[in-house]
Design a protein that fits this description.
heterodimer, A: 313 residues, alpha+beta, Multidrug efflux transporter AcrB transmembrane fold, Alpha-Beta Plaits, 2 domains, two-stranded parallel sheet, 6 strands, B: 614 residues, 4 domains, 5-stranded antiparallel β-sheet, 4-stranded antiparallel β-sheet, 22 strands, 50% helix, 26% strand, globular, transmembrane (chain B), membrane (chain B), SecD/SecF_CS (chain B)
Chain lengths: 313, 614
């Protein structure tokens, strides 16, 4: 069985102007949304108290809000979590009350009002912790991008390195943009997912770059654009199949994994799709515009090529 | 001949997979409801206790699967959750305060596997249920306390040396000493500099020396404050009766406490936040203990029990409280006799010196005060704590004591060690505060396991079906590799002692399953390409594997770099995710490249083939 049977080279790069416009619009849109709406930071980053309760029947959110207001908690955020029985409550820090006690008090208040209620979980995060996590997360992203830049520059060439890092930044910005536009909660697991997207998208980009390098050496009488087109066509099957299997498992995670990792699965699903697109268009386009050419990939590899040929004989 | 794998390679592959599979098997066995008994401060777990436990359970008619004494603990395996609850209550009542009785789920690993070090994967709190606390040590107090001590210390040192100063006072970031003239200042600076090499002295205008701590001394002070708190928290956690608590330093000034299975978080918090103190008191020698026990306790004295339950008559007046203790550690003197060395701050030193000068030859008692929860609550729903006093040592004062002295006459190095630990526990130099709490109820934990397992299984099945349809015979080989990959991840996770499986970790496994086939897709697509270009099947296999290898390596190394960074920077859930991701990358490369190659070679290699099932 063959997914796509391509006898001829697909002219991917003929669509480069629309692709560039598409990416630029999406990036600008994401950046604007990030500036205006910002991210809906989860408890991990904002600090505060979050309580998860399970009711015996369908939970009456208004009644819960009323009970909490009566118990002295101002403006509690009460929402369903995963099912109509499960409720997630978020409480901002209160002056004069020890932060660590808020969770237990809320549970007490709700269980007094409705004894069948079950405490599923409490999370309290101090205000400083959140700031530190946000700082650490941002740092992790920057360090990842930098390490990758160095590694790819070493293994390939700086134009490819820059191309793949720009593709990664593209994916990260768009994923963050999605979370900002839809105002999905951005918590620690989503941060991990975004970093995993970096890993995944890079995987794709490297496979394409590797093929471009190989073809530069193998095919002597084509120009750069054609070589990139040939390489993208050759790797297209693989790109699509790997994305497909990854999307398959992510769908399973998204549908069956439960509310706790919903955000994680969402970020990865979107990131994998956008990462597939970016490895075809963004990374190679950037390399092309930076003027990558056969000569750039040849000199450092002479020795290796010699070794290659010998083994083939 | 192309595509032949030498026998030794097959053996190595089988060996590696076999080891991983062996260590993955403990996960297949269930868990027993168990009760775990460990000793408190003044007790030991021995065969006598083992007999007592066996008898107690037998008389109450509680059936147990096994009762084993191992590693200073007794583990009683029970048949079900109900009898676990009853057994715990019964044993708690029978054994009293000296022992901690905790409920636990003990893995039902067969003995031969356990002997090989096999154990199931540890589960994170989000899967197991329990409480996670992050506590922060107040470093400012720790450092300020040291400065406070320095003020007193400098005053007495300069006075003893006959150097006249105007004032010594504590300021932000250090201590200032003022002098009347430059000569004295120089003399003092020379003297103090030689005396305190780990401090930094800077001369300022107006005949003033500013003393601050060197970076190293500052780091030591902070480190000590954290270590001390960890020791205290460990002691208190034992009171909670948790089977496998974990108390670990996190970062510079934080302590992560994990209490699996704990539900009453309010109680846990109050016990962790409770304080223990220490008092040095003189023994009342003017009255008879027996009279006091009979009810005639003299005014100004009180009865306090010692560790063996013997009453001691102590004066109520306190010579010194534990917060003057800077450090206490156990050692052996030149004859190998155990002793405890104690250092006091300057205020404590002068108080001690004042008291001991008239009391040489008389006994001095050390009283340990612990605030234990009574389990009852007051009108405000607060737990009621009761101070429990206990004499932990009575020593005869041999000479006039100063700011550093030692307690000798201890029976064993173990006793000396315990005493030092308690002395340190009584001298909390830096207060702590809970900055993060995560409680996961047992039902949520079970549900997380169910959801995570389901996601893995269905994702896995979907990929298996897809690969089989798309690549036929070779798809089957890839599926075998994927299955082995999963077994190896579980095996390696079980082998690494520190690794715990969490929900994000399970997500990492799911992601690995999706991405692991990538290597095979790369190879198989390459083989198809080679076939299209007209190579023979054997050559196509050979070149397919060869040319895909460096691509796979590059792609995986970069993803691994991301995993490493996540591991280094992240905490908690992110760390869990990165561990499974990294293990998954390593195992998937192994299975997708080497294992499939070996299988493909055994299947196709060395035969004249016209077609490949790909």
């Amino acid at each position: 069985m063959q997914l796509l049977n391509m006898k001829n080279t697909v002219g991917f790069l003929s669509l480069r102007i629309p692709a560039a416009i598409f990416s630029t619009v999406l990036i600008l849109g994401s950046l604007v949304s990030l500036a205006v709406n910002q991210l809906n930071w989860g408890l991990d980053f904002t600090g505060g108290t979050q309580i998860e309760m399970r009711y015996e029947g369908v939970a009456n959110l208004d009644a819960i809000r009323g009970e909490l207001t009566q118990a002295g908690f101002n403006e509690p955020i009460v929402q369903n979590y995963g099912s109509s029985q499960d409720v997630l409550i978020r409480i901002a820090p209160i002056d004069g009350v020890k932060n660590v006690e808020i969770g237990d008090r809320v549970v007490n208040a709700l269980q007094t009002a409705d004894p069948g209620t079950e405490k599923r979980g409490i999370a309290f995060v101090g205000p400083n912790i959140g700031d530190e996590l946000a700082e650490q997360g941002g740092l992790a992203m920057l360090v990842s991008l930098l390490c990758i830049l160095v590694y790819v520059a070493m293994r390939f060439e700086w134009r490819f390195a820059l191309g793949s890092v720009i593709a990664l930044a593209h994916d990260v910005i768009l994923t963050l943009g999605l979370f900002s536009i839809l105002q999905l909660e951005f918590d620690l697991t989503v941060l991990a997912a975004v970093l995993a997207v970096i890993g995944y998208s890079l995987n794709d980009t490297i496979v394409v770059s590797d093929r471009i390098r190989e073809n530069f050496r193998k095919i002597r009488n084509s120009d750069t654009e054609e070589i990139i087109n040939i390489s993208l066509t050759q790797t297209l099957n693989r790109t699509i199949i790997t994305s497909l299997t990854t999307v398959l498992v992510l769908m399973s995670l998204f549908l069956l994994g439960g509310a706790t990792i919903h955000g994680f699965a969402t970020a990865l699903l979107f990131g994998v799709l956008i990462g597939t697109y970016s490895s075809i268009y963004v990374a190679s386009l950037v390399a092309l515009w930076l003027g990558v050419s056969r000569e750039d990939l040849m000199p450092t590899e002479i020795e290796k090529e010699g070794a290659d040929q010998e083994s083939m004989l | 001949m192309l595509n032949q794998t030498p026998l030794w390679k097959y053996l190595v592959l089988i060996f590696i997979i076999g080891i991983c599979a062996l260590y993955a098997t403990p996960n297949l066995y269930g868990e027993d409801h168990a009760v775990q008994i460990s000793a408190g401060r003044n007790a030991t777990v021995d065969d006598a206790l083992l007999n007592q436990v066996t008898e107690t359970l037998a008389t109450q008619g509680i059936a147990s699967k096994s009762i084993v004494l191992d590693n200073q603990q007794i583990l009683v395996r029970l048949t079900n959750a109900d009898s676990q609850l009853i057994a715990r209550e019964t044993l708690e009542r029978a054994l009293g305060d000296d022992y901690y009785v905790a409920m636990n789920l003990a893995p039902d690993t067969p003995a031969w596997l356990e002997a090989l070090g096999g154990a199931p994967m540890k589960l994170g709190l989000d899967l197991r249920g329990g409480v996670h606390f992050l506590m922060e040590v107040d470093m400012n107090s720790a450092v300020n306390k040291s400065f406070e001590d320095m003020v007193g210390d400098f005053r007495s040192a300069l006075r003893e040396e006959g150097i006249r100063y105007r004032t010594v006072r504590q300021v932000e970031g250090g201590v200032e000493i003022f002098f009347r003239d430059q000569d004295t200042l120089d003399k003092a600076e020379f003297f103090l500099r030689n005396r305190n090499r780990d401090l930094v002295f800077t001369e300022k205008n107006d005949l003033k020396i500013m003393v601050s701590m060197s970076e190293q001394k500052l780091a030591e002070t902070r480190d000590y404050a954290v270590k001390q708190n960890i020791t205290i928290i460990r002691n208190r956690v034992n009171q909670l009766g948790v089977a496998e608590p974990s108390v670990q330093k996190q970062g510079v000034d934080r302590i992560a406490v994990q209490l699996p299975g704990i539900q009453d978080t309010a109680r846990a918090k109050e016990i962790l936040n409770a304080t223990a103190t220490l008092e040095f008191r003189s023994v009342d020698l003017d009255h008879d203990v027996r009279d006091a026990v009979a009810g005639r306790v003299p005014a100004g004295s009180e009865l306090v029990l010692n560790q063996d339950g013997q009453p001691q008559l102590l004066k109520k007046k306190i010579i010194l409280t534990g917060n003057h203790i800077i450090d206490a550690n156990s050692s052996a003197d030149e004859y190998g006799i155990p002793q405890v060395n104690i250092s006091l701050d300057s205020k404590g030193g002068s108080k001690m010196s004042q008291f001991t000068k008239d009391s040489i030859g008389k006994p001095m008692a050390t009283v340990f005060i612990e605030y234990k929860s009574t389990g009852e609550r007051d009108a405000n729903e607060k737990l009621i704590f009761e101070a429990k006093r206990e004499v932990i040592s009575v020593a005869t004062i041999q000479a006039r004591l100063g700011s550093s002295f030692r307690i000798t006459g201890l029976d064993s190095p173990q006793e000396a060690h315990n005493l030092a630990l308690l002395l340190r526990a009584g001298a909390l130099i830096a207060p702590i505060q809970i900055v993060e709490e995560r409680t996961v109820g047992p039902s949520l934990g079970k549900e997380n396991i169910r959801l995570g397992t389901q996601a893995i299984i269905w994702g896995f099945i979907a990929v298996l079906i897809f690969m089989l349809i798309y690549y036929k015979g070779f798809g089957l080989v890839a599926n075998l590799a994927l299955t082995l990959n999963l077994v190896m991840i579980v095996g390696i996770m079980s082998m690494i002692p520190g690794a715990a499986l969490s929900l994000p970790g399970m997500a990492g496994i799911v992601l690995t399953v999706g991405m692991a086939v990538d290597a095979n897709v790369l190879i198989f697509e390459r083989i198809r390409e080679e076939l299209r270009e007209g190579r023979s099947p054997q050559q196509a296999i050979h070149h397919g594997y060869d040319s895909a290898f460096s691509t796979i390596l590059d792609a995986n190394i970069t993803t691994f770099i991301v995993g490493l960074i996540l591991f280094a920077v992240g905490t908690g859930p992110i760390k869990g995710f990165s561990i499974t991701l990294m293990i998954g990358i390593a195992t998937s490369m192994f299975t997708a490249i080497f294992v499939t190659r070996a299988v493909v070679n055994a299947w196709c290699g060395g035969k004249p083939l016209k077609k490949l099932s790909i």
